[in-house]
Amino acid sequence: MIDSIMKRLGVSHDLYRNGNYTVRTPIDGSVIGQVSLEGAEAVDERIAKAQQAFEAWRKVPAPRRGELVRLFAQQLRDHKEDLGQLVTWECGKILQEGLGEVQEMIDICDLAVGQSRQLFGLTIASERPGHHMRESWHPLGPIGLITAFNFPVAPWAWNAALALVCGNSLLWKPSEKTPLCALACQALLERAMEEFGDDAPKDLSQVILGDRDAGERLVDDPRIPLISATGSTRMGREVAPRVAARFGRSILELGGNNAMILAPSADLDMAVRAILFSAVGTAGQRCTTLRRLIVHESIRDEVVDRLKKAYANISIGDPREGYLVGPLIDSQAYEQMQSALERARQQGAKIVGGERQLAESYPDGYYVSPAIVEVEQQDELVRHETFAPILYVMGYRDFDDALAMNNDVPQGLSSCVFTTDVREAETFVSAVGSDCGIANVNIGPSGAEIGGAFGGEKETGGGRESGSDVWKSYMRRQTNTVNYSRELPLAQGIKFD
Ligand code: NAD
């Protein structure tokens, strides 16, 4: 099965069947590939090639660069099913979510194609006669992309589509847990490059298969002006100072600890559906997964009751076969979930779910029933991101207290309120409301569209990817002053003669 998917996606057999590093599917732990991890020398050579490719690509007019991204989007449309299936095989999310990820890639490509004709600068009024000023945006250089296992294709595309139209070359270090997805995306982009013609330099996009050492090489190399890194806060804490030490730029997309405030006026049917999708979807392994439910005391019992009933009906199983929840990525993720639940139990929390499922059928697949954990207060355990389907439920009486709880965690990615009270809704998205990069009203915290900027504050890293004016992060800004007069007046009226 994997062989036929990889063949249709254009990945040569040698690239994923002959290496020294074993790739397993989280579905049942079976081997789906053998890839070769690259050492220091190979990474160094790739960076040099990326620099050469950048020097050629930056000369290609931006709308023409957009044409390459348009062709890539067509490849993605033609192979949406195959790539979606590969995402399911390699990271274990259900096929609907795998297909959703590929659709996000297509959407960002479409946005980037339009953007390629809109890399707008400014004209600025000069204080000096016979002068004009303007602001221009120029390509930046080779861009280093480091990505996480749980979204093995879309975040790369958010960066890659914009970085390409902005005139940059790409070096991608995917998660060591999902190298096949990276090889497939690269193969589709190479097909688009072939169709595009000679304007696209050969090494415009490269994949570096490796572990964190390979990531660290990119992070430390001054030839790479921008590192865009998606992953845990631990990773970001290591990457940020190293990039800063060489005055590089970084876009950091790190951990989240996302909350919903559920007010008494809310439409509870909608809220329960939103909770289910955002707390349980992708087996709780989304950066935007709902992890904290802050519910008004007057409706707490009813909501918990409805959630327990809904959770009892969740189908758990092989993500290729139409179940709603697939496996955790590996045994380590399972152990981390169990250790968080054990701590909660010791602290007196009421817990439903969290048990291992299907262990007999899949001894090497880590399926769990999503857990609802009722706690009295937001302590250190709740403040920590456990990357698994655990929903902590806490009560509130006063909206301001709920807002304070929403904000009282180290992370600042996504948040939402369910209410029909306009004062509560507007307060939540105001300057004194949620402190997160994403704040929603009457929709859950996960499942963002690509049109907006995506990212979060505090320990989520402060980076933004995807839509809005994010393209500017992949370019360098230049201020130009042009004197078309025969005089040389100085700014601020300074006389120097
Ligand atoms: P991880 O931090 O273990 O690994 C992410 C990537 O960083 C991998 O490619 C890894 O090899 C690399 N890496 C690790 N240490 C490094 C270092 N010191 N230098 C350079 N590279 C290094 O994360 P994961 O387990 O793959 O993903 C789950 C985490 O990612 C969760 O915390 C989740 O919230 C977060 N995430 C965030 C977003 C977002 O947009 N904010 C999106 C997806 C995932």
TrEMBL record:
Keyword Oxidoreductase: yes
Active site per UniProt: 253
The keyword NAD belongs to this UniProt entry's keyword annotation: yes
SUPFAM superfamilies in UniProt: ALDH-like
Stretch forming the signal peptide: none
One Pfam family in the UniProt entry: Aldedh
Its EC number(s): 1.2.1.3
Keyword annotations: NAD, Oxidoreductase
Subunit structure of this chain's protein: Homotetramer.
Family membership noted in the UniProt record: Belongs to the aldehyde dehydrogenase family.
The protein's name in its UniProt record: aldehyde dehydrogenase (NAD(+))
Protein source organism: Litchfieldella rifensis
Lineage of the organism: Bacteria, Pseudomonadati, Pseudomonadota, Gammaproteobacteria, Oceanospirillales
